[in-house]
Amino acid sequence: MKLALDLFEGTNLQGLAGSGEFENPADPATLLEKVLSGTIGIITIVAFVWFVFLVITGGVGIMFSNGDKNAVATGSKKIFNGLIGIVIILLTLVIIRVLSMLLGLDSVPFLNPAEFIKNFSLK
Structure pTM? Predict the structure, then answer.
């Protein structure tokens, strides 16, 4: 509850950002930017892990199908869906990178998941 009040009032926000504090804690645009960037970064990472999991489980399903055509079809469908999901994620990141370069934006925080994970902390 205290964290919600601090966020609402814009006070005592140290430790919510990777750098330790916001540039201007009272600026709602900065808070919104950090929340959206963090959310998109987390969703991208989770989606990538999920699609890799689909590919792996599809392969395991095919290996243990014992010649069952339905199990092979299910495993193949999982692999196909996982690969399509990975391609969509990668294409989306490329499109966002190109658009940000065309618009003259220097950096889009959620396009660097490694940096996001390194700086993410809730103290």
Answer: 0.59
